[in-house]
Design a protein that fits this description.
Blueprint (H helix, E strand, L loop, with lengths): L4 H5 L6 H17 L9 H10 L5 H4 L5 H10 L11 H8 L1
Length: 95
């Protein structure tokens, strides 16, 4: 439920940014009570991580600040280059 797209395709190619993806997915779960991509088989969930639109926690919980929702969506970007490039960057975005 929390695996980064590149990690599912080729685990050897994944780097620390896969962890940031997973952290964003876990944050989504903590805010909504369910994983970002629900239902279906494991293969279908993996495909959703690859191609489905990144869900908005704010769509379900309007009290979530837009900047926080934006950060979590950025953390779950399909392309690792579009994610925060370090845990410090995530931390600094939360300040």
């Amino acid at each position: 439920d929390y695996i980064a797209p590149e990690q599912a395709l080729d685990p050897a190619s994944a780097d620390w940014r896969a962890d940031l993806y997973s952290l964003g997915a876990v944050a989504f779960f903590l805010l909504t009570g369910h994983p970002p991509y629900e239902g279906g088989t494991v293969a279908q969930k993996l495909m959703k991580h690859q191609a489905a639109a990144i869900p908005s926690a704010r769509a379900e919980r309007p009290e979530i600040p837009p900047t926080l929702d934006s950060l979590f969506k950025r953390m779950m970007s399909k392309n690792p280059a579009d994610r925060p490039q370090s845990a410090k960057e995530v931390h600094d975005s939360l300040l």
